[in-house]
Amino acid sequence: MIVSVKNLVKRFDKIVAIDHLNLEIEEGEIFGLLGPNGSGKSTTINCILSLLKYDKGSIEIFNKPMKPDAYDIKKDIGVIFQNVAVFDELTVYENISYFCSLYVKDRKEVKRLTEEAIKFVSLEEFTKFYPKKLSGGLLRRLNIACGIAHKPKLIILDEPTVAVDPQSRNKILEGIKELNKQGATIIYTTHYMEEVEQICSRISIMDKGKIIATGTKEELKEMISVGEKIKLEVYNMNEEAVKEIRELSGILSVKYDNSLLTIKSSKGRNNLVRILEYLGAKEIKFSQVYTELPTLNDVFLEITGKELRD
Amino acid sequence: MQVFRLYFKLLNRSLPTIVIYIIVFLVIVVGSSLNAKQNNEKMFKESKVDIAFINYDKNSAFIDGLKDYLGSRCNFKEIEDSKEAIQDALFFRNVSYIVTIPKDFTERFFDGEEVKVQKLSVPESTDSVFIDMAINNYFDKVKLYINHSQSLSEDEIVKSVMKDLSSEVEVEFYSKTAKEEDSSFLINYYNYIVYAMLSTLILGIGAIMISFTELDIRRRNIVTPLSITSFNLQQILGNITFTLGLDVILILFGFFLNGKVLVSQKSLLFILNAVIFSIVSLSIAYLVGILVKSREASNGVANVIGMGSCFISGVFVPKELLGENVLNIAKFTPAYWYTTTNEAVGKLTNHTLENYTGIFQNMLIQFGFAISFFAIALVISKKKSVEVI
């Protein structure tokens, strides 16, 4: 086990930020911690890293208890925080080299690892640039390079793609997958479900300081009753027709708004066929039909009754 | 020593501004020293006082002698002999003093009567004392000859008195110690160090502390395998190296500008005092670095503390010209005790334990300031470390 969190409780005065949280992360995983803002993801990470004292529970990393002075554990951890944490007075190269040197004593090794990290995040052309001269995306890549240059066994990324352009975001996500391929275990926190679906091998969904579901994305989607989401552009639909569709077999919910009919159906075949047959029989005209498999947002919605980004 | 190396990389970025501050300091100190030198060379210039001389007596050798004697110290101005003209002359400061010789003054004086000249002077004028002394001096001498050389005529007495009064006595001061050094340059130079030391250290250390204490950087440092103790020790070592480096530079500049390398007890005391003050400045800079959140604010604070201390502690304006209230406030600043120590060292002629006691007490007061500032900084730092998230 790379990380084991048992019964973690963290309070801020009377507010319970983490409520008896349990987590187990295996070696080689890309573990996603998904939840809306304020759900307790960053607090969990800060407790795991001993940046925060917690009220109850235990945390083990590499099967050893994690404490503020557990330097033998810290040397194998790389952390990329949500905010860019680099020195404005140092160049790209100097920043990466400095943070790497806090983990690695040998100067030649630091130089080699720094150059590798620069190559990994594709900052070769910017080595002599100061952070203030870099764009937001490049700055995020520098932030990542500072956290991973020493080749850690466990990499924790706390919302590293906030306010990043799509191109840089893809580059970062590809980089994370590459680091995982090289052998690092990844903990990735975000409120973007697409990112989690794209890269994570296992996901925990958090809300109000609790883990509400854990599993692979397929397992999580299997947990809910929604099997398919069907959307049709329909004109002149009346209340009666909406009611009749809702009564069709396998239909869970129907919503008609702005000429868009959204139907959630249960798992099973022929749901779409039944709907189209009904519309044909009633001579209700429709133009475009889309079908979607359930997303993690649907999982979150079904479990908590609210949208992930509410 | 990663943090120690980083310290000087960060300092490098503030170096241009620090150099500007040192250049400004040197320009000020050289300018003021040259000015002080000129003032010292021409410190005493005899000036003549404007007076009026009204004589109701007959023209005698005695009165002429008095007029000649006063003439060597005063300029005679003609004024109208009326009450109003006399009052106007004094009010408009055309003259500072009016001597009036009453009728039959010579005769009565030589007869041994108690007679006085009449005088009018500008109120609270120091010049009047000087002229009073001159007049008394002349009359005393004449009286001496009248009493002890009765065979001499009035003309002969006046001649003898004038001869006596024209002779000058040379006075030479002897000290128990060797010839006293002129410490005015050193006092001036080391006093001005207040500005350089405070501004430079607040600017340099402030900027570095701002970078180190930035929340995200602190979090990133805490999650590394470098212990907080090692991190802090390397940072402290950086601060001490920077401060001592600045000490060496400023002291060497002092020797260079002074034109000679003096290794005397006095110069060692100046150096010791400067080193102690640099520790105080370091503690202030450390505190400012913890409190201030931006480089711009740090620059502002460096100017306010640097210049402010110089103004109220007798660096830019001599203490003699400062009001009592200002000096009372200045006593709550370390710069006051530093400059007071410099002045005491400068005046030192005998190197005895008794003389050293006051100097070392002032140095201890400065140490007290340093300890207080460090203690406050540590309390705030501890409070901030709890707020690391």
TrEMBL record, chain A:
Molecular function via GO:
ATP binding; ATP hydrolysis activity
Record key words, sorted: ATP-binding, Nucleotide-binding, Transport
**Is ATP-binding found in the keyword set?**
yes
| Superkingdom classification of source | Bacteria
- Which Gene3D superfamilies does the entry mention? P-loop containing nucleotide triphosphate hydrolases
Signal peptide feature range:
none
According to the entry, every stretch annotated as the ABC transporter domain falls at 3-233
Under SMART domains, the record lists: AAA
Give the matching InterPro entries. AAA+_ATPase (IPR003593), ABC_transporter-like_ATP-bd (IPR003439), DrrA1/2-like_C (IPR025302), P-loop_NTPase (IPR027417)
Task: Write the protein's name.
Answer: ABC-2 type transport system ATP-binding protein
State the organism of origin: Mobilisporobacter senegalensis
UniProtKB/TrEMBL annotation, chain B:
Alphabetized UniProt keyword annotations: Membrane, Transmembrane, Transmembrane helix
- Residue ranges spanning the membrane: these are 15-34, 192-215, 236-256, 268-288, 359-380
- Recorded GO MF terms: ABC-type transporter activity
- All copies of the ABC-2 type transporter transmembrane domain together span 18-378
Note the Gene3D superfamilies from the entry.
Answer: abc type-2 transporter like domain
- Membrane protein topology class: Multi-pass membrane protein
Localization annotation? Membrane
Known InterPro entries for this protein? ABC-2_transporter (IPR052902), ABC2_TM (IPR013525)
Q: Which GO terms describe its cellular component?
A: membrane
Query: What is the name listed in the Swiss-Prot or TrEMBL entry for this protein?
Result: ABC-2 type transport system permease protein
**Can you name the source organism?**
Mobilisporobacter senegalensis
